[in-house]
Amino acid sequence: MAVFQELKKGVLISLWFVFLTFPVMVIKVDPIARTVTWRWMNALYMAVGTFIIYTLVQFFIKRRGRSKPASTQKEAGSSVIHRLLDNPRRRAMLFVVLAVAAIAFPQLLSSYQTNVMTTALMYVVLGLGLNIVVGLAGLLDLGFVAFYAVGAYTYALLNHHFGLGFWTILPVGGLLAACFGILLGFPVLRLRGDYLAIVTLGFGEIIRLVLENWGEFSKGPSGISNIARPSLFGMELDLHGSIVFNYYLMVLFVIFTIFVVNRLQNSRLGRAWIALREDEIACQAMGIDKHRTKLVAFSLGAFWAGLMGVVFAGKTTFVNPASFTFMESAIILAIVVLGGMGSIVGVILGALILILMPEYLRGLSQYRMLAFGAILVCMMIFRPQGLIANIRRTYVYKKTPNDAQAS
Amino acid sequence: MTSQPILEVSGLTMDFGGIRALNALDLDVASGEIVALIGPNGAGKTTFFNCITGIYTPTEGNVWLTPPGGKKVSLNGLKPNKVTERGLARTFQNIRLFSKMTVLENVMIGRHCRTKAFILGAILRDPRTRREEQDILETSYAMLEKVGLAEHCDEFAENLSYGAQRRLEIARALATEPLLLLLDEPAAGMNPQETIELEGLIKKISREGQAILLIEHDMKLVMSLSDRIFVMDYGRKIAQGTPREIRENPAVIKAYLGEEVDA
Questions:
Q1: Where are the alpha helices (DSSP H) in A163-267?
Q2: Averaged pLDDT for residues B26-35
């Protein structure tokens, strides 16, 4: 009987959808020919489509509900990737395969593909940077792109005015962005959750608007062009060579970032961030300096964004404020949330999916934002913890306490 | 019991707008002692804890802490994390664990203020940081063994039973190496069996020389544990003394049971 009830509900929901979409999908007015076309087939498609989607959703919810009791033990090794990473031999194999693939990529594929992959890798690093702030420390930052802009403009302006090279500016851009992170951090130390999100959103917009309107400083909306590409030991590279070089540069950057973020995450500082995310008052009562810990999270996150800003300016040789809209912040945040907050593997996967997918589905580009939204909604329903949830319980210590016990 | 006081509080007053939650409160705890702070609901006991641990800034009054053999330090106006560094660690009435962290990690957070590694240490993992990390691990594990949670060390804190969560809070507070341990209603919501276990645990910690100040409503527990008792009502101290003195104190009986009405 339950099945019948569900079907009835599904039919009613489809009819409701047909009614809602009726004016858009069925009626077509041609104002020139002064005719009205009734596209009844569309209503039928709508009804069938809605019904199928509804049934599928219900089916998955039901199945998930049934498998609930068994899921507790499954949780420990919840994903294939974690199981792969747990076993040292398989992990080594995975790394070798990845390394070979990463090295061979630009040799096998066109410069266009390499360029797209470089962009995706940049977002991996940006995602990992934001992951420190949002995933670990739990500070919802909607203005992350501001730090990206700071890095990019640092390189653009210093290169334009003083002719300084990429490698000189790289650390400067990162550090300057980190300073801006602290600058933003100070006033928002007391804020949390929604309030923090609004202030950081405002900060992001302020930076963009300043760049757009302060013409003498940033050349306004027309931007700065002819920025020098990154050089290889002083050698100037041709276009293709430079694309390949940028790609390898980003691969190294990603490896470096993963290394640093992983170490930070499993340190005293990383634990303090996670504790701060869980409970601020308890955190302080345990002797953690809340303000200092938050500021460090902000500035470290901003540091990566600044570095990527410099790389971005060097890669595209042109910056203008249009590259640093709220949309960018939203995409980077979506990478972190979709991938799984606090999970390094998740963020990498999230960045690759969210950046590469629209590239390869260009044919569907009109529906891009629609699909984007739909995917995020589905994620929140079916996997709120992200693609790859962060698992902390099988931590490196498992062995050590036993040693401690033995000694 | 005549050993030197660790904690001295004098004239502590806290106003919330027009309401005087604490009124010129004096209190002291000597080393190795178990002192209980009791009083009817709303008497200001938790406010007192919040004031001395720096969560609230008291309107008036002084809080002093004296490390054994050390100099007296003032805790006035310090932030909560600084207070913990000086040697006051607390548990919370409504449990405040880091629920998405493992049991062991919760205790490791307690070691935070006794360790130093920062950004560079975390990234480079130099020998000093590794030693420190190992030390954090061993101390934290030892704390878990002390409260009997060692076998649960890899579980999430939120999955522990209620009584175990309370014991984890104690372990976490002990990991900060406090001079004085503040327990805010440790037995609240526990069943009789858990309360007996808790009593044993507190006695065990106390035997190791740990000074303890506790707020508690379970009178049986208070009477059997405490060396001295302070009684509060409406933000004032109405009595202090040994359990026997308190039991017979008319002011205390009045506060708890109300005044006798002449027929």
A1: 166-185, 193-213, 215-218, 239-265
A2: 92
